[in-house]
């Protein structure tokens, strides 16, 4: 399975093109056949929410959700997994590799230092309720992301 990580500009470009029913049909066909698997990260969420045009942010969030993307763990989570696996390899212990690409809820749970749970399966946006603007939903990503913006010593 080929994974495709789209930067924010590419995601926006495809989102605008997907307004065309013909393009959207081709996009959906590629997604359904498995020939295209889109990967996003919490940084897409940051960039999507970082706008004064709330309607555009919600439209983009709905588009991202419609792609049913897989989610890339944050850098620190990936580094932690790398260290765990390297240490076990050094000790010659069997240690199953954990995926770096996972579900949205698993990424939101990791951002909150918790195990994956249904409460983290938050749609980015829906027609009646925006994950971008609803405080009860956004608490699972806004505070952890704010902490991520603070430089950590390496």
Biggest sheet overview: 4 strands, mixed
In whole angstroms, how far apart are the ends? 33 Å
Strand content: 5-15%
The best one-word shape is: globular
* H-E order: EHHEHHEHEHHH
What do the pLDDT scores average to?
83
Number of strands: 4
| Helical percentage | 40-55%
Radius of gyration, whole Å: 17 Å
Tell me the domain tally. Answer: 1
Widest sheet, order of strands? 1-2-3-4
Number of helical elements: 8
Low-confidence runs of at least 5 consecutive residues = 126-131, 148-154
Q: Give the structural class.
A: alpha/beta
Observed structural traits:
8% strand, alpha/beta, 154 residues, 4-stranded mixed sheet, 4 strands
Structure, described:
A four-stranded mixed beta sheet has the order 1-2-3-4. It is built from eight helices and four strands. The radius of gyration is 17 Å and the shape is globular. With 154 residues, the protein is α/β, with parallel strands linked by helices. The longest helix has 16 residues, at 75-90. It starts with a strand and ends in a 6-residue tail after the last helix. It has one domain (3-74, 100-148).
Write the layout of secondary structure elements.
Layout: E1 3-5, H1 8-17, H2 21-33, E2 37-40, H3 42-49, H4 54-66, E3 70-72, H5 75-90, E4 101-102, H6 104-111, H7 135-138, H8 142-148
Parallel strand pairs: 1-2, 2-3
Antiparallel strand pairs: 3-4
Quick recap:
It is built from 8 helices and 4 strands; from the N terminus they run E-H-H-E-H-H-E-H-E-H-H-H. It has helices at residues 8-17, 21-33, 42-49, 54-66, 75-90, 104-111, 135-138, 142-148; strands at 3-5, 37-40, 70-72, 101-102. A 4-stranded mixed β-sheet has the order 1-2-3-4.
């Amino acid at each position: 399975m080929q994974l495709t990580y789209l930067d924010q500009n590419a995601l926006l470009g495809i989102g605008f093109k997907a307004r065309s029913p013909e393009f959207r049909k081709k996009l959906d066909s590629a997604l359904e056949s498995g020939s295209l698997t889109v990967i996003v990260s919490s940084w897409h969420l940051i960039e999507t929410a970082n706008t004064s045009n709330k309607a555009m942010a919600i439209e983009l969030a709905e588009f991202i959700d419609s792609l049913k993307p897989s989610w890339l763990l944050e850098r620190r989570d990936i580094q932690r997994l790398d260290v765990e696996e390297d240490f076990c390899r050094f000790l010659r212990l069997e240690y199953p590799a954990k995926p770096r690409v996972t579900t949205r809820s698993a990424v939101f749970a990791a951002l909150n230092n918790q195990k994956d749970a249904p409460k983290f399966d938050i749609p980015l946006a829906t027609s009646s309720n925006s994950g971008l603007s609803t405080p009860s939903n956004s608490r699972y990503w806004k505070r952890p992301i704010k902490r991520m913006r603070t430089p950590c010593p390496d």
